[in-house]
Design brief:
Elements (H helix, E strand, L loop, with lengths): L1 H22 L6 E2 L6 E6 L2 H5 L1 H10 L14 E6 L12 E7 L7 E6 L3 E2 L2 E7 L2 H31 L5 H11 L10 E6 L2 E7 L4 E10 L8 H15 L8 E4 L7 E5 L7 E11 L4 E11 L4 E10 L6 H11 L5
Parallel strand pairs: 1-6, 2-3, 2-4, 4-7
Antiparallel strand pairs: 5-7, 8-9, 9-10, 10-15, 11-13, 12-13, 13-14, 14-15
Length: 331
Amino acid sequence: MKKIKILALILAMATAFTACTAKKSDNRKDRSVGGTSEVLFVTQNDEQWNGRMGEAVREFFETEQYGLPQPETNFKVAHININALNDMFQKHRNLIIAEIVPDLPNPVIESQNDWQSAPQYAIRIKAKDATTWIKVFENQKDDIKKHFDSNERARFMDFFHPQADPKAIQAMKNVFGCTMIVPNGYYVAVNKDHFMWLRREEADKSFGLIIYELPYRSTDDLSDARLIKVRDSVTKKYIPGPTDGSYMTLDKDFIKPVFDTIADFPAGFAIETRGLWKTEGEFMAGPFVSYTVVNPEATKLVTVEGFVYYPNKAKRDLLRQLESILWSLKF
């Protein structure tokens, strides 16, 4: 009887994963659901969720996101059991489905983009026991997170693209020969010497987008020390603080900048920098993320950055919004 139930479960899941192809011949997908930065973990029972499998998923996705002044996780992991995976939950944007099949000789991994909605990434991992399942997840988790990060950016772009500001986009194109999907609400605060600062001011928070370019001479220009030095020099010159003599700089003590290479950045190979900015001479700070790329049409190094000021409030999702805008960079 137990094997019959497991077989029925596998057949039901296989049917669910392929059903949308038959239902939607026009290839249109419903919009995916789920909270911002949320992962839905589907298990067969509560024991899997409360045990080592659920713990492995939570430990990875709910680690603290680097560069935020207050602790915030990269993702929030929500949970349901397989019998609750109805039409609505099948449309969740970031979906992990776990199955334990005791007589399964080898693990099975099945994944699909835009399975029942868009943007969506659904992955199903089947294994003979919890230990094997966790090993498979550990090998796949970084790739899964990349897909989920991409979905979060796509979600924001679906919202931002219809409200793009053509004046801001054209101003950037005129100076740098590139474009980004800048939403309405931003205005050009500084535009000189191949440096541009776009601001968006709200009652309790501020957003900033900056872009600047310099001659590209060698790979030394992409070193960590050089990127920090250049960034501090331009923000000191062009982004003043609220009082005389104050200016924006990078925090190098409380939260040091970290660097990563992004091979799949849309505008080309990029160096990503994350950390905390602060205002020298004032008690102001916030998170930032930037990408530095080589302009393929010229020997120029272009940096685009987003930063936010929202004191004593959660900023992870606001930074994700800015990150999404930066990922729309095109030459």
